[in-house]
Amino acid sequence: MRRDPSLEPAELLRRAGAAFASANPSTFAALVGGAVVGAAADLSGDPLDPLVASALASSVADRIRARGGAEAGDKTVVDALLAGAGAGTDLDAVIDAVRRAVDDGAERTSKRGRAAWLQERSVGLRDPGMVAYLRFLEDLRATRTR
Predict the structure, then answer these.
(1) Non-local CB neighbours of 139 within 8 Å, separated by 6+ positions
(2) HEC profile for 101-119?
(3) Checking CA distances to 56, which of 24, 31, 37, 95 falls within 20 to 30 Å?
(4) Beta carbons of 63 and 35 less than 8 angstroms apart
């Protein structure tokens, strides 16, 4: 999706959430896409500064928890979102906090696995949502430094 500079942040997020949900036929995509669309409604016309982005991450996490049932500590993308939201306004600090959450999640799931339906096949694997969120933030940091 190309970014239209005339779009308000809320509209951009609504479009991005809808595009993500429709492009990925999975429960994860439906949860995250729907959460982003819903959280976009919480935004005003203000620029998406670090404090607003932190509140947005918390809102997305809350919506995923309400709809999907994941809670903090379940080692899902919820943990990564909450770690990022609570890390302050410095993008590098946010990425470091998310990286720690992803690494912690991978370590804790190495013995029991992630998804029950995958059983033994998921032992030792990182939660895909956590990794995707980390990659998003790393890409954001890379575009900021260009």
Answers:
(1) none
(2) HHHHHHHHHCCCCCCHHHH
(3) 24
(4) yes
Torsion-angle region of residue 71: left (phi > 0), alpha (psi -120 to 50) or beta? Answer: beta
pLDDT digits (tens, 9 = 90+) for 90-116: 878 888 888 888 777 766 655 544 555
Q: How far apart are CA 94 and CA 99, in angstroms?
A: 9
Instruction: Name the CA dihedral angle for 120, 125, 131, 132, rounded to a multiple of 10 degrees.
Output: -40
Among the listed residues 135, 127, 143, the one whose alpha carbon sits nearest the alpha carbon of residue 31: 127
pTM of the model: 0.75
pLDDT tens by residue, 13-55: 888 889 888 887 788 888 888 998 998 888 776 666 777 778 8
